[in-house]
Design brief:
The structure holds two protein chains of two kinds. By secondary structure, chain A is an alpha+beta fold. Chain A is built from four helices and 14 strands. In chain B, a hairpin with a 2-residue loop joins strand 7 and strand 8 (about 105). Classes of the chains: A alpha+beta, B mainly beta. The interface of A and B includes residues 127, 129, 130, 159 and 177 of A.
Amino acid sequence: MYKAMLILLTTCFFMGCNTVEDKGEFEKIKEQLPEIGGFMINGKNMEIANWLGRPTSDGRELLEPINMIIIDQVSTSSEDSKSRLINAFTQAGFPERSGHSSGYKGIMDGEYFSQTPSDIDIAFADFMWAFTNCHARFFGPYKTGDFWVWIGSSSQEKGVIHDYVSFKNSRNLMTENLITRTETVWLGDVPLNNEVNTSTQSTGDHDGFAKLLKLN
Amino acid sequence: MKKYLIITCLFFLGFINMSRAQVSSELRIEIRGAITGVYTFTNIEKGRIDNEDKGISKEQTLGFFSVPPTALPGNLEVAAVIANLELGKLLEVGSYKMVIVKDENPIFNSREKLGFMTVVRTERGTPIEEYYTETGTITLSQLDEISARGSFEATLKMAKGTKEITVSGSFVVRL
């Protein structure tokens, strides 16, 4: 993870993209975040989403973690914030695409939030479902005093059959594209302590952190 | 006798494994129209769709696709899916009629051999032009435990826009 961060920071330094310049801002914003549920929730049974029941290659249940947090200090309404989120992902190369299961929820401060961009088979994704693709579902927004908060679960799946490939690849690619292709700023990584590795359950290659990003 | 039978079986299994090891997936495509060129993809993956809700089993389907980002001039990616939706039938040798694709969903609305194809042009790893089948055929000429082979020709139209391409080519998919 630290190697990935170093590469990301180095890339951003040379490419002039948006990274945190003030560690104080990260801590200040982190303090204001709501309590974030560490996992995406299956809206049908209200249990932790588990890749439609498909186990990992070693037979364990695959739990889907929240691995991205996006804040919006600009929007004046939840609808405005939703539009800005969709625009940012579209500009970053992850437009709304169909072919992804839906009806999921995210939890902030004990409250359930429905799926964005849509609750009907749509997610932010770089390629059509027929290709191996990185896609994400977001939930929110939650309003704190100063900003709106979105949380998301980002993952990479194999083309055609939607088998799990990675959580980290997708999270990192989305983060990289958002900060290099839009005005989004990466503030830092928030530990959600949602990495699972037991004899029966796993969060794959997830490292327990969510990328904290600020829409500008 | 038993010993010779075991030896024969082991030899046969070894032959199958060797044959499987010798087959590599490959897709060759010639494109004309808004995009032109001849491209050969060697990093091809496959998948077989299992969709109980729609009454489709793995044995009825085959999808094969390049894996982005493909390091080829032209920055292209290609994917195709075929399905034998005839009642009680499995994937088999024959002609699969290509269907149109609407909002990234192929219109599989008849019980016959159907398929679709997509060609995507990318820039910085991101799709900038996406073409989907309007008409055409994928012909599956050989199918066994080791591989699926065939050819295709089709007309594809850009999802958002008016550009068109025609494609023809062949594929080998290691199963």
